[in-house]
Amino acid sequence: MRRLTPVLLAAIALFSAACEKKSQPTTSAEAPGGQAAQPATGGKPPSSDTLLLGEVVSLTGAQATFGVSTRNGVDLALNEVNAAGGVKGKKLAVRVLDDQSKPEEAAQAATRLITQDKVLVILGDVASSNSLAMADKAQAAGIPMITPASTNPAVTEKGDFIFRVCFIDPFQGFVMAKFAREHLKVERAAILQDNKSAYSIGLTEVFSQKFKELGGTLLATESYSQGDTDFRAQLTSIKKLKPQAIYVPGYYNDVGIIARQARELGLTVPMMGADGWDSEKLFELAGNALDGSYFSNHYSPANPEPRVQKFIADYKAAYGSVPDALAALGYDAARVAIAAIEKSKDLSGPSIRDAIAQTKDFPGVAGTITLDEKRNAVKSAVILKVGNGTTEFVTTVHP
Amino acid sequence: MSQLIQHLINGIASGTIYALIALGYTMVYGVLKLINFAHGDVMMVGVYMGYATAFALGREARGSVGGVLLIFLVAMGGCALLGFLIERFAYRPLREKPRLTALITAIGISFTLSYGFQLDIGFLPGSAPRAFPQIIKPSQWFTLGDPEFPDVVLWNWQVISLMVAVALMMGLQYLVFRTRFGRAMRAVSFDHRVAALMGIPTDRVISVTFMIGSALAAGAGLLYAIKDTSVSPLMGLYVGLKAFVAAVIGGIGNVPGAMVGGLLLGLVEEFVVGYAASTWRDAVAFGFLILVLLVRPGGLFGRVAAEKV
């Protein structure tokens, strides 16, 4: 055993380093969930007649559907603009890198886009922890970055080159706390947060503060770590306190299993969540365990506005599924970036940055986008109710 | 009190699964003195085989006794074959080489499986986590307290899991200590060169050991998937590492040790998550390992053998 010990230690160290993998430019990969393969527009070298955008999203790993939806939305926007003749007489292309749902990979990918590919703008990512890692790199290099869906406030606080086209968590947490107190009449709530994610921790803080302000009682805040698959211990502790609802501001891949195990332990109260729930996969993972639960989101496919309906029709034609909020936000982020490139004088980072900062009343498919002085979008949220493997629109909450 | 009972039930449920996987590590180490780091990934492949079989059967056949048996048989048989192939083509050529070479190869196989399964080509599932179908329809076997809002729930799948795990372990115990093959296995484990001189077909014994260990891993993987409902290509790395820790706690190479180590680890983790925080889970699991090794360097049941120089 004595001679084996160092070997074992080395092996365990190697094992822990198992997750080191170089990110590669994505070619057309079949999207998880069995959608038809879509040719990604990435992988082309920048030439004088194309304008190259960069995109870092999670195409593999725990939040894979976020990345795939975002990429589809971005591709749709680019294809539309290219079909209409491009920008400044040039065609647009995007180089897509996969960060495998990991912050350290996201930082690496952003560096690569900036130094090797010399992209004009970076789009991405969805998970706030990943966007935070990328924002440092983009800010340091003076390349504007637009995150389509990262809602944690710290992301745009990284510097004046970082923007977002979605609302921020303080608003999202506030919306759900208000809805729980006024609409669902919840007196006693518990929280189950993902303490590995900046997104989840931020939402927990805001929700608990607002919920207490509005006269509710917060029984407990339990936590799990992203990637856990057994939540029975935390749920057992929560169950003992007899809450009327549980706030689970996590990502769909964990939430689906949490819901299933909660129902199994006899915890049948509704769950409440946020936009991290929004994925086709949620219903596959949760079965019917989330029926009667609610979550806040950026957009509802039920919105009758013509531009939203046109987007849904186009997306369906291209990808064969109803776009989720991430697809809508990816589309919006790309449109805002393209409009800024159109307006910028010399295509330098600062000039594009200035053009993005002036975005006002931009007609996005996930709401009208006006960027405030903190580079965040001010827009309304919707509350959706889960039932029978789909969501129904409940109400819109304005800021 | 009721919370304690619930945690005990949950801890035993996950502990038996660790124990089953730990058995594979321990058996292979026993006959080859090799830590087969691909073991967890073989388990993952078994889970996906079960997943594919469940879908091939369709919704109606899944919940039936025959359907569940078939799923287990396909996964365990398929993994036995995979274990055989890995041993035959990756480890056997290296048998007389330094031990480190085989260990690095094992890690290579592990990565090949876990990252290969993240590809989206042909039969490979791709990297997104998937929900394992409910092959055992959940129903409450036993509840304590208010039936509407029970304090303690014992589920049918927990009972079935426990029974399957215990049956597999008893079968293994019988095989190792009560059959001719078991005697050959113990002989090879004692000294494979001398065993070969005595007319024991060591190659065949080692092959079969790998097959049994891999089949047990597949069975354990299916129980794990029934319990936690989420399967992904990287699950083998994590669960495998935990089971390896369980095997070392019990004393690597020792069959009852693997069982006790697995149960202990499952219970320790459950209580840490239930009464402290889930972030401490892995730290406490590995801390527990270090503590056990400090007190008993060979593990709980292991004997410290002097290195033959």
From TrEMBL, chain A:
UniProt-listed InterPro entries: Leu-bd (IPR028081), Leu_Ile_Val-bd (IPR000709), Peripla_BP_I (IPR028082)
- Keywords on record: Amino-acid transport, Signal, Transport
**Signal sequence bounds:** 1-18
What Pfam families does its record include?
Peripla_BP_6
Q: Which GO terms describe its biological process?
A: amino acid transport
What is this protein called in UniProt? Branched-chain amino acid ABC transporter substrate-binding protein
Write out the similarity annotation: Belongs to the leucine-binding protein family.
Q: Where is the composition biased (Low complexity)?
A: 31-46
Automatic annotation (TrEMBL), chain B:
**Protein keywords:** Amino-acid transport, Cell inner membrane, Cell membrane, Membrane, Transmembrane, Transmembrane helix, Transport
Gene Ontology biological process terms, A to Z: D-alanine transmembrane transport; L-alanine transport; L-isoleucine import across plasma membrane
Classification via Gene3D superfamilies: ABC transporter involved in vitamin B12 uptake, BtuC
Where primarily located? membrane
Q: Which domain of life is it from?
A: Bacteria
Sequence intervals crossing the membrane: 12-32, 64-86, 98-117, 155-177, 205-226, 283-306
Q: Which family does it belong to?
A: Belongs to the binding-protein-dependent transport system permease family. LivHM subfamily.
Mind telling me what this protein is named? Branched-chain amino acid ABC transporter permease
Q: Which organism is it from?
A: Melittangium boletus DSM 14713
